[in-house]
Specification:
The complex is a heterodimer. Chain A has helices spanning 3-20, 23-27, 97-103, 278-283, 304-311, 350-353; strands at 31-45, 54-57, 71-79, 85-88, 105-110, 114-115, 121-122, 147-158, 163-168, 171-172, 174-175, 185-186, 193-203, 209-221, 256-257, 275-276, 292-302, 319-321, 329-335, 348-349, 361-371, 378-383, 387-389, 392-393, 399-413. In chain A, 12% of the residues lie in helices and 37% in strands. In chain A, strand 13 (193-203) and strand 14 (209-221) form a beta hairpin. In chain A, the strands form seven sheets. In chain A, strands 2, 5, 6, 7 and 22 form a five-stranded antiparallel β-sheet that branches. In chain A, strands 8-17-13-14-10 form a five-stranded mixed β-sheet. In chain A, strands 1-25-3-21 form a four-stranded antiparallel β-sheet. By secondary structure, chain A is mainly β. The model of chain A is unreliable at 18-26 and 224-247 (pLDDT under 50). Chain A is globular. Chain B is mainly beta. Chain B is 8% helix and 39% strand. Chain B has helices spanning 6-22, 120-123, 132-135; strands at residues 25-37, 45-47, 61-70, 90-96, 99-101, 107-108, 138-148, 153-160, 170-180, 186-195, 201-203, 216-225, 241-248, 257-258, 271-272, 284-287, 293-295, 302-307, 315-327. In chain B, strands 1, 3, 14, 16, 17 and 19 form a six-stranded mixed β-sheet that branches. Chain B has a four-stranded antiparallel β-sheet with strand order 2-18-4-5, with no helix packed on it. In chain B, strands 7-12-9-10 form a four-stranded antiparallel β-sheet. In chain B, strand 9 and strand 10 (186-195) form a beta hairpin. The longest helix of chain B has 17 residues, at 6-22. Chain B starts with 5 loop residues before the first helix and ends with a strand. The chains are: A mainly beta, B mainly beta. Chains A and B meet through helix 1, strand 8, strand 13, strand 14 and strand 17 of A and helix 1, strand 5 and strand 6 of B. Strand 14 of chain A pairs parallel with strand 6 (107-108) of chain B, so a sheet runs across the interface.
Amino acid sequence: MDDQNLKTIERLIEALKADAKDAQSVYDDGIYYLPRGLWVHGWLDFPGLTFARRSLQLDREQLRNGTRYPIQINRVAISIPGNPIAREGQDGLIRNSTSMLNDLDIRVSVPFRQHYSRQSVVAAGIAPKPTSTPPTRAFGESSLWGQNVLLFDRPLIIGRQSGIDWDISSFPAMRSPSGGDGAWDLPPNEDDTLDATMSYFERGGLMQGSARTHRTQIRADASAQRRRDASTPNNLPLQRQIVQAGEPLPFPGGWGAVSYETPARTIAYWDPQSSFPANAFKTKSPVQGGGAQLYGMATAIDQIGLDDYITGAARFPTAKPAPVSGMLGTRVRCRGAVESSWWWRPGIPLNLMLDTVTDAAVYELDVPLTLMPGDSVDVSIDAPASAFSAVDGYEPGLRYPIAVAFNGFTAIEG
Amino acid sequence: MTSQYDDNRQYRIQLAMQNPSKGIIEEPRLYFDTITLPTARFGEIIAGHQEVFRNGERFPVRITHMAFAMARLDGDAQPATQAETLIQRFGARLRFHDQFYMNNLATGQVPGVDGQITPIPVWGNKVVATAPATSFSTSTWGHQPWVYSSRDTLTVELRLDADPAEGAEVTVNVTFSGIGMQSARPYIFTGNLTLDSAGKTTIPPRFFANDGAEPVLITDTSINIGGPLNSIDATGDTRQVLVNVRQVGNGTGANWVQGPLNDPTVPVGVAPAVLWGARSGRAVIHEFPGQGLIWEKGEGLELDMQMLVDTGVDSRVHAAMLGYIMVQ
């Protein structure tokens, strides 16, 4: 083996040894790394039968870095949020997430820098990153484990007195458009809840690591129209918040609002019952002294009962339910730390933020994209023709939500 | 022209070559247990056997991964197949000298759910999914590379979790893959056997003999199980077969597998193939942070489990700790 090869190997071994050490020794460089990203949602409308494709420009302002610090983007995640049916086993009127991603063309550009492709590319046709859980044996099961995970690009060093607020939204109760039983409600009863666990992975302690885990229950909101909660402000000093006043959150095509037996109960979008507040975070520290080094976060939501309901009786017996993580919004921020703005604009679908293990389509950028303060990203979607026939395609008159997230981290010089 | 894989391969070769010069043998180890959680004890935290996850050898062991999976059959008197998705309804934690991993108690704001330990899916921090064609039937462990010397062979023991029905025999393939330490060319050693009973048997060692001219650095172990012979579906179930491996020649000569002690119906010394899937498979895989856990001689820890939601049946859950022993 010649000297050049030996030097390469020695450098590689040293780099691998450095990775294997406690990451704090590698990233203890006085810079505070915080998970961060930008996301945008839009609607695809199908006003009538048409064979023409249409172009949709997603709102650039929702993808603008309005903070004072650069954001390094490493991944792009795409999902069709809010649709309870991921795939149908029988031909029906409602096209679903799997079909939509294979029908959409997407083009990403960074103003004044580059287009990622000269022409639009089908969203499912770019080399995706493996992020899924193993397939289920039964088609009617949404997921083997009900989990979503985010492993941070850089460890988050947080002081002993600091905490993290993490909220998951309430579940959007909705009424199905069709099915053997006629229209039915999801969940079936307004008191139905989903057991959920929220967790942070942490290094340190006698066993080299631990997790801070919080069990919650996600409740169903039966409001006739879901609106952005007034508590999501649009004037955060460090991050611009785009709120379309009065604009409803996206319902999937054909699914409508449900009204349970009186009294119809309205659950706040940011339900305190499905939150992991900073005070609870601080009480679970496994380390007696010093700060904490977090390297990831995860959720596990038990929707076995919900899956059984969707596919039961004469509802959608051959459907594949979607994980509910695409129907829930989330928001996270630090408390008492260097910087306390929301990591993503509040309301990002859970499956787009936790993108290491997710059912969303995730693409890893070979070369990270750094967005300086004020930079933004342009995303345009070429939507498919609405229908090939009245019963084969995307039902006219409906609208489908689409959400795109650019995920990475921000570096703040402390 | 170099490819993106060249650096990685060179690193592995260099790493293996360090072993002989340092005189250190690194060999895979898998500790596992099967815990039965009766529905009558729903909500109770059930402690596993304290001697399972313990280094009973003379040299230190480094634990890198943890694996969890539902057993194929439940714990009822007439065992029936368990749904894999039920893993969402069980919690687990490790205990070591009054410290817990993960978390002591998972507390929340909901009445009745306080005191529940971390659900097993939340442990998963590694993507191990593959396409359906291989996910159900194949587990792969990408372990610390170990040296397979010339003239060595392997003893691979197999057993099914229950006697198969008439005509439903299954074929099991076990494959070890690696790189020649001098030629840097790929090597694959594979053997198979058709199993028709739950008795323990051994794949003939001749399949695995390294009768080549050079030692091989083994990096992966894969276990594949086919569908029943009388079925048109050739896809098997990795929960159905249990495996142990032992190197003959060099190495330690000891069994790679230790356990279980809690489930008396499962013989000691063979582990379900699903638990070998630290690189790809169907087990919930947790990769320990940093250097993982180091067990000196006699050290270990204990595992607790809890049924978080009443499944209505006596359920059985497998758990394993994977790593390697370092012998100097």
